[in-house]
Amino acid sequence: MDEESNKIHISEALNLLEEWFLKRICQLFLIIDNGKVCPEGSGILIEIFSLRILVTAGHVIMDGRHNHLCFPNLNSEGMTHLDGVWYPSDNKTNIGKDFDDFAYLVMNDSTYKSLVKNGYKFIQIDNIDFEHIASPKKKYTATGFRWKKTKKVGLDYYSNLEVITNLGAIDASYKNEEYKQRKILIRNNRKVTNTKTKNLEITGKLEGMSGGALWYTDVEHNYNKEKPTIKLVGILNEYDSALIYSSSIKVLLEKILERKNIHEI
Predict the structure, then answer these.
(1) From the CB of residue 81, how many other CB atoms can be counted at a distance below 10 Å?
(2) Exposed/middle/buried for 257, CB within 10 Å: 0-12, 13-18, 19+?
């Protein structure tokens, strides 16, 4: 971090990055009867190996929902349907029920152009750590959109971006070494500091944040709002009263390479 960044408390630094986050993480909505929509989960926009993908939790797209998802337009009213080819982390018969619980959409040109037109950005490899090793001494930040904080105004839906920062889980929280290689856990204290108000607030239910991003946001990073050095390390997929769970971003990379998606572009 540069000298100026060292003077900024992490909560203030993360507030500066809210717009940066909002352009790279989008709320996902499910299209229901008569063109109506309801909030379904969160998604991460990533560009690697010239591959443009949207990543979310596997259970967000289960039961055929992958064909009925859309994202909110940022620069105009309404929603845009997500088109492309979905790849679950496990076999299609096990979507959302497997251990890794993630899925990614290799989007077509029209979806990509719609996202760019609406001001969305894609996370580049400089902000991804595929070799991250979890530690209880490292600070992490979970970002996504809760269902209960989504409001409808006219034709549009709005939801506050949740920014939850905490330390990694203790080693005893992991069942075995393989588990630790595939999952990154952070503590889910009953009360956390709201980065905007500085007040302690009960975390409550995190439904809707599934598919959101887990970032490594320790003090060693630069929090310049134009070009931060924070690292994407996980895909949020579940929580309980003690922990927030995410699949390691490394497992996503392994699946992409295994399936040779990079050659489909």
Answers:
(1) 13
(2) exposed
For 25, 49, 264, the CA distances from 260, given in Å and listed in that order, are 25, 11, 7
Q: How far is CA 127 from the centre of its chain?
A: 13
The answer to whether the beta carbons of residues 88 and 95 sit under 8 Å apart is yes
What span, in angstroms and rounded, lies between the C-alpha atoms of 265 and 257?
13
Length of the chain: 265
* Residue 107 in tokens: 């989007």
| Contact of 166 with 187, CB cutoff 8 Å | yes
**Single-letter amino acid, residue 2:** D
Single-letter code of the amino acid located at 130: F
* C-alpha to C-alpha distance for 60 and 42, rounded to whole angstroms: 8
**What sign for the dihedral angle of Cα 222, 249, 141, 167?**
negative
DSSP string, 90-147: S-GGGTTTSSS-EEEEEE-HHHHHHHHHTT---B-GGGB-TT----TTSEEEEEEEEE
pLDDT tens for the chain, 265 residues: list them: 444 444 567 778 888 899 999 999 999 999 997 778 999 999 999 999 889 999 999 999 998 899 999 999 888 888 999 999 999 998 777 888 899 999 999 999 999 999 999 999 999 999 999 999 999 999 999 999 998 888 887 778 888 899 999 999 999 999 998 899 999 999 998 776 666 667 777 778 899 999 999 999 998 899 988 899 999 999 999 999 899 999 999 999 999 999 876 544 3
Angle formed at CA 126 by CA 61 and CA 16, multiple of 5 degrees: 80
Reported for 108-112, long-range contacts at CB under 8 A and 24+ positions apart, including other chains, are: 108/83, 108/84, 110/83, 111/80, 111/81, 111/82, 111/83, 111/84, 112/52
